[in-house]
Amino acid sequence: MNKTPVYLSLILALSGNVLAETRYVSDSLEITMRSGKSTSHGITRMLRSGTPVEILETDKKSGYSHVRTRGGKEGWVLTRFLMKGPAARDRLAKAEKKLAELELENRRVATAIQSIKEEKLSLQRDKQSLAGEHRQVSQELSEIKRTASSALAMDSENKELKSRVVTLERNLQTLQQENESLKDRTARDWFMVGAAVVLMGIIVGLIIPRIRWRRKSSWGDTF
After folding, report:
1. CA–CA separation, 133 vs 125, rounded Å?
2. In Å, how far from its chain's centre is CA 47?
3. Is the pTM of the predicted complex or chain greater than 0.70?
4. What count of other Cβ atoms lies within 10 Å of the Cβ of residue 19?
């Protein structure tokens, strides 16, 4: 005779486990959890809005549900005060927290984007600076090339001028030698002319007296 309640208890326990699900106290400020499924039973605990409870059994006739809190306390509460989802204020708080996290993340992303923009501007300025330096280096290189070309041309002209100077010096030496030779020849010629004049004077000086003597002799014979 004592076995039937045991079986019933096991069946009720199994059915209670099958029916077990999580519900939340509604948005009312507080609800009462009683020791039984009527207002005549004593209040064992006050449950605030949003308190999660596990439903062990639901009595549709009385409108009460047998629940268990996370702390392990059991009792009966009105089923109409239980919701399948968290309370609106909890959802609002969670939504506000999520919104705050999103806003924080948005600020982080905006900061990162601003940093990327500044880095991009810095890179663009560096690029422009490098482009200016490249143009300056190119101009300097072109100037160096022109200078080097001018230097090579001047070196070539210098070598040519040196060659011409050497040639002119050689020609000058030749002319000087020819001039010295001409001076020596002229001096010899004048010497020869002078000697010839002196010789002619001597000859004339020797011949003229004889010619006069002969003339005188011929005149004497005539008379």
Report:
1. 12
2. 64
3. no
4. 14
The answer to whether 89 and 50 have CB atoms below 8 angstroms apart is yes
**For residue 197, what pLDDT is reported?**
82
- What is the Cα–Cα distance from 32 to 41, expressed in whole angstroms? 11
How do strand 43-48 and strand 30-34 relate by DSSP bridges? Answer: antiparallel
Angstrom distance (rounded) from CA 78 to CA 59:
10
**Alpha-carbon distance 199 to 222, whole Å?**
35
**Which tokens in the block code for residue 95?**
């939504």
75: burial class by Cβ within 10 Å (0-12, 13-18, 19+)? buried
C-alpha span between 38 and 66 (Å, rounded): 11
Residue pair 68/57 in contact by the 8 Å Cβ criterion: no
- Classify each residue of 141-154 as buried b or exposed e, where b means 16 or more C-beta atoms within 10 Å of its C-beta: eeeeeeeeeeeeee
Residue 116 has pLDDT above 90, yes or no: yes
Inter-residue contact 65 to 59 (CB < 8 Å): yes
State the residue for tokens 């208890």.
9
- How far apart CA 142 and CA 148 sit, in angstroms, is 10
pLDDT, position 154: 80
14-18, 72-76, 84-88, 143-147: range with highest mean pLDDT: 72-76
Q: What is the DSSP letter of 80?
A: G
Residue 57 host element (H or E): strand 52-59
